[in-house]
Specification:
The complex is a heterodimer of chains A (470) and B (445). With 470 residues, chain A is α+β, with helices and mostly antiparallel strands. Chain A has 10 helices and 25 strands. Chain A has helices at 2-14, 70-88, 120-135, 199-204, 206-223, 238-250, 255-258, 327-332, 366-371, 422-427, and strands at residues 19-35, 38-55, 60-66, 104-108, 140-158, 163-181, 184-195, 225-226, 231-236, 287-290, 312-316, 319-320, 341-342, 351-352, 356-359, 375-379, 382-387, 393-398, 401-405, 408-414, 417-421, 429-432, 439-447, 452-460, 463-469. In chain A, strands 1, 2, 3, 4, 5, 6 and 7 form a 7-stranded mixed sheet that branches. In chain A, strands 8-20-19-16-9-25-22 form a 7-stranded mixed sheet. In chain A, β6 (163-181) and β7 (184-195) form a beta hairpin. In chain A, α1 (2-14) packs parallel to α2 and α3 packs parallel to α5 (206-223). Chain A is globular. Chain B is an alpha+beta fold and 445 residues long. In chain B, the strands form 2 sheets. In chain B, strands 1, 2, 3, 4, 5, 6 and 7 form a 7-stranded antiparallel sheet that branches. A 5-stranded mixed beta barrel of chain B has the order 8-13-14-16-18. Chain B is 22% helix and 38% strand. Chain B is globular, with a radius of gyration of 24 Å. The chains are: A alpha+beta (470), B alpha+beta (445). At the A-B interface, β1, β2, β3, α2 and α3 of A face β1, β2, β4, α2 and α4 of B. β3 (60-66) of chain A pairs parallel with β2 of chain B.
């Protein structure tokens, strides 16, 4: 395989590329989707493909080839180098690319129970058992549950001399269910993801967690009171912390957005390159993005440009501290990459992406945060959410939520809105839960043209937000 | 093996291995994209889009197990081992009670007009000239920066089935997506076509730049109820949501706001909606669906009344409806969503808006409850404030919320000019005019 990658890189260089990288991937995929207990989709595939990206005088080109042969690699690269050279005549700005150490490394992600030892029947049974548990809840109406596995064997090589060989087993699961009670309906959608062995699925405790979620939502339907109006305090659980972190810190700190590369679709950012050190939140706010969490949704040791992974402290005590970079954006700021370059599958160009993004825990118990609220809302999780394309105007609508009165949770509340701008949101943080309240959830994150959905995770502890307008 | 030979071989092998319903689809083609940002070309991409996919069932009627796969096709030994694994894999899946077999009727197919243009196939690096012209034109007309993509594709799709179908079609398409930006505003337009003759991107570029400039100095507005004109890009996003809600499988899984709504009023009577699988020059057009049924025009909403769901053969049987020729590999899917135009010109539509907004684009449409259709979405790019039928300024930082049924019952008027839209948010090809909808909740942070 290394010979094929060397061949591809040499073809690109001979055709006039200054720099080139190639990756060969074998992606072994299984996918099962059930509507209630009906297997509406059972799918597997084994795809072998090569992706080559190169820089010509002042432009970037790439080709993707399934079933690659030397003839095809050669003809497609030569043709595309000509396109890239033609494109470089439009470009005025000098194309920069950071100098990085060229690593040679081979690694396999550890699996206690190997993913490829799990039978297709076991995977189907996992979904069916989750459905069976859920369907015993009296208010249950319907469910859709999907389970996907992917084992990627990848060879990455670039013209700097890097060679990274990796084996990555990946599991994702998504579920969607409806409960009906007291003449009302509510729904729950969730996404779970991890990189590692089948033990990840075991640790999800699906049967128990789905039943608990369905029962809690039924309680909201049966006993929920309309959300109050006015200015009050919020305590949010780790799922809500997670979506706040992902949408309002993770995305706007992607340097390619900040520099306008994704302006047309994924959008730009309220953050500008000269805002490092600018206050965006209270002193309580510390936020990290890192791929270096075992079994997480986005675990990797080297990114898709061969750069060694590390933690990124995006916000430090309420100040903007660091952006996520690839080799292009970092060079523009006179920095080196912090290994944020990822792909959704082997056919796609690498882009700056989040990995696992979380709010750093504090010292308060969740109970003490609630006790500190005279009148307010506890929002445990959410269903509807969105944010504008500069990541300023955020909304999450509570699903399982409760009233807080005189420091205690009193009754469920029907679907309160947290609709707020990013500055106000992070400035309102006045208390941070400890590790006991900490949790991470998965999230399929979309970006790029064509769209690349990559598994990420997001989370943190419970937070106390002051003075929210409801 | 060559792709077509491999396809024939796979069908025969699967038959001999005891598979019952078999669909083997080959695709051969290429896709190209030039991505630009800040007036510079930031990526030039080329994909070989060739693949060979299989859907099959094993078992007897009423007791069928189904699965799908993409297979490597270059080596016969590899194909053999993959097919054996596929049969084993399928036999190990539970019975798919929803699947009632491929259609067994004999079909006649008609060529879909205008979905292939050899000029697009041979475009090559000439795409760069189009891009240069688009960027320069936008800047001349007032944009400070531009971003977007120029994409073109060609390919041939061939379907072989165990029901003796062997049909194929060629296709091409080209699209320019351009967002024009100033220091405090933007506007986004798309131009999509299946042939170069209809790829008239320059008016769209001018429109993007002009609207971006006009939307400068946006201001916050009060939260409240507004009458709103949705331009085609923004309206296409809503129509995509409506189209997805008409999918039979969406209805079954609780992800539609049209459950138990057949033959009931679901929108204002001024609104109708068709799915047209064989639309001439349509970007989602093809002569047959994924189970070999000929595509056709289906009236989904007739003057406000929901007439049918989009179905494949199996879901049609479950719902006791006629199949609409919308089979996808996994479930039914819309092809081209077409909204019949209204009577008023765009100018009169605006003149009839005493006090309200014009929304040119939106994104992030998310549901709190799919069955109720309760949602919110964010307008983006140019948002114009209108008083007395005239644009008097622009707005920012707003959110629309409501439920899809009530929203569409408040349709007031549609314009008499339609556009074809395919975009990031509207991945289902859509042909829509502008629309005026009253009494929409707007919140502002």
């Amino acid at each position: 395989m290394e010979d094929l990658l060397k061949f591809a890189i040499s073809v690109a260089q001979d055709a006039g590329a200054n720099w080139a990288e190639a990756r060969y991937a074998s992606e072994d995929v299984t996918s099962f989707y059930y509507d209630n207990d009906v297997p509406v989709s059972s799918y597997y595939s084994l795809d072998n493909s090569i992706f080559i990206r190169f820089i010509t005088s002042n432009s970037v080109g790439s080709v993707f080839i399934p079933e690659p042969t030397k003839e095809k690699i050669s003809s497609m690269i030569k043709k595309q180098v000509m396109v890239a050279k033609a494109a470089s005549r439009i470009n005025q700005e000098k194309l920069l690319f950071s100098e990085e150490k060229a690593y040679t490394k081979k690694y396999s992600v550890k699996e206690k129970t190997k993913l490829n030892s799990i039978s297709d029947e076991e995977k189907s049974k996992t979904i069916l058992n989750a459905y069976k548990s859920l369907s015993k809840v009296e208010s249950f109406d319907s469910s859709s549950i999907g389970l996907n596995t992917k084992i990627t064997d990848k060879y990455y090589m670039n013209s700097d001399g890097a060679l990274i060989i990796s084996k990555t087993p990946e599991i994702t699961m998504n579920y969607f269910f409806t409960v009906k009670s007291n003449g009302k309906i509510t729904q729950r959608m969730n996404y779970l993801a991890g990189i590692g062995g089948w033990e990840i699925v075991k640790n999800w405790n699906l049967n128990k967690s789905l039943v608990s979620e369905a029962k809690n939502l039924t309680n909201v339907l049966n006993n929920g009171v309309p959300a109050p109006k006015g200015i009050m305090d919020f305590v949010v659980g780790h799922e809500v912390t997670g979506i706040m972190v992902h949408e309002s810190v993770g995305h706007p700190y992607e340097a390619d957005r900040i520099m306008g590369r994704e302006s047309a679709q994924a959008g730009e950012s309220f953050v500008k390159t000269d805002m490092i050190g600018r206050r965006v939140g209270s002193d309580y706010v510390n936020i990290i993005d890192t791929p270096l969490i075992n079994n997480s949704a986005a675990y990797y040791l080297y990114d898709e440009e061969g750069v060694k992974s590390r933690d990124k402290l995006l916000m430090k005590k309420g100040l903007i501290n660091e952006f996520m970079h690839d080799r292009s954006s970092s060079a523009k700021m006179g920095l080196t990459s912090n290994a944020s370059s990822r792909i959704s599958d082997n056919s796609k160009e690498p882009l700056i992406r989040m990995s696992n993004t979380y709010f750093v825990p504090g010292k308060s118990t969740e109970a003490s945060l609630i006790k500190d609220v005279k009148k307010g809302i506890y929002m445990k999780n959410f269903m509807e959410w969105n944010i504008d394309d500069t990541r300023y105007n955020f909304k999450a609508k509570g699903n399982e939520s409760y009233l807080i009165e005189n420091g205690e949770l009193t009754k469920p509340v029907l679907f309160p809105n947290l609709e707020i701008d990013t500055y106000k949101m992070w400035s309102s943080v006045d208390g941070v839960g400890n590790k006991a309240s900490f949790g991470m959830v998965g999230g399929p994150c979309g970006k790029g043209e064509p769209m690349q959905g990559v598994p990420t995770s997001m989370g943190g502890p419970s937070l106390l937000l002051r003075g929210i307008t409801l | 093996m060559k792709l077509n030979s491999a396809q024939d071989y796979v069908l025969n092998q699967l038959k001999s291995l005891g598979a019952k319903d078999i669909v083997v689809t080959s695709h051969s083609g290429e896709s190209f994209q030039n991505k630009f940002a800040n007036n510079e070309v930031v990526a030039n991409k080329n994909w070989d889009t060739s693949n060979l996919s299989i859907f099959l069932s094993v078992g007897e009627n009423g007791d069928l197990r189904t699965s799908g796969t993409d297979v490597s096709y270059s080596d016969q030994t590899v194909i053999d081992s993959q097919l054996k694994r596929l049969i084993k894999f399928t036999k190990n899946t539970p019975i798919n009670k929803n699947f009632s077999g491929l259609p067994t009727e004999t079909f006649k197919y008609r060529e879909v007009r205008g979905i292939y243009d050899p000029e697009i196939k041979s475009l090559g690096k000439n795409s760069i000239s189009i891009l240069r012209d688009a960027i320069d034109l936008a800047n001349q007309k007032g944009a400070e920066r531009t971003g977007g993509t120029l994409t073109h594709d060609y390919g041939i799709t061939r379907m072989l089935t165990s029901t003796d179908i062997d049909e194929s079609y060629n296709y091409t398409n080209i699209s320019l997506s351009i967002r024009a930006l100033t220091s405090d505003s933007s506007a986004h337009k798309v131009c999509v076509a299946t042939n170069m003759k209809e790829f008239k991107y320059r008016p769209k570029v001018i429109q993007a730049a002009t609207e971006a400039k006009l939307a400068s100095y946006p201001e916050r507005i009060e939260s409240g109820k507004y009458n709103i004109i949705f331009e085609p890009m923004a309206f296409a996003n809503l129509v995509n949501e409506i189209g997805r809600a008409t999918i039979a499988e969406s209805v079954e899984t609780g992800s539609s706001f049209y459950i138990n709504k057949l033959n009931k009023q679901v929108t204002n009577e001024k609104f109708s909606l068709f799915d047209v699988g064989n639309l001439a020059r349509g970007l989602g057009s093809r002569p047959f669906d994924s189970e070999g049924r000929p595509t056709k025009a289906t009236e989904l909403i007739s003057s406000g009344t929901l007439k049918t769901y989009l179905t494949n053969s199996s879901s049609a049987k479950r719902f006791k409806l006629q199949p609409t020729g919308n089979a996808g590999i996994l479930c039914s899917k819309p092809s081209n969503l077409v909204v019949p135009i209204g009577r008023k010109s765009d100018e009169k539509l605006l003149a009839g808006l005493d006090d309200g907004l014009v929304i040119t684009n939106s994104w992030y449409h998310r549901y709190q409850n799919y069955i109720k259709g309760s949602f919110s979405a964010l307008p983006r790019d140019a948002i114009f404030v209108v008083k007395g039928g005239k644009i008097i300024g622009s707005a920012k930082d707003i959110r629309i919320s409501g439920d899809m049924i009530n929203l569409m019952k408040n349709v007031d008027e549609l314009s008499n000019k339609k556009e074809r839209i395919v975009n990031w948010e509207s991945d289902i090809p859509t042909e829509v005019p502008s629309i005026r909808i009253n009494n929409i909740k707007i919140t502002s942070v």
